[in-house]
Amino acid sequence: MAGRNPQESKKLMDVLLEMQNNSITFLFVKHDMETVMSIADKIVIKNAEGSPKEIANNLDVIKAYLGEEEAV
């Protein structure tokens, strides 16, 4: 979480998870996809949307936002 130390980031994540557990909808804008994937029920990325699994497996999203592994 930008501008926060690890303790503040953990506290914020705990609050967001509590909100999620209470079925409270919130908008979470984050570039760290690992964090997004760990908390989101649904993700919208410009012209794509779906569950974290659908987003992670969408080839257009991978190419544009997540990057591709290169064979060595």
From TrEMBL:
It comes from the Bacteria. Residues 48-71 form the Branched-chain amino acid ATP-binding cassette transporter C-terminal domain. This is ABC-type branched-subunit amino acid transport system ATPase component. It comes from Thermaerobacillus caldiproteolyticus. One of its GO terms (molecular function) is ATP binding. SUPFAM superfamilies: P-loop containing nucleoside triphosphate hydrolases (SSF52540). Keywords: ATP-binding, Nucleotide-binding, Transport. GO terms for cellular component: plasma membrane. Pfam families: BCA_ABC_TP_C (PF12399). InterPro entries: ABC_AA/LPS_Transport (IPR051120), BCA_ABC_TP_C (IPR032823), P-loop_NTPase (IPR027417). One of its GO terms (biological process) is L-alanine transport.
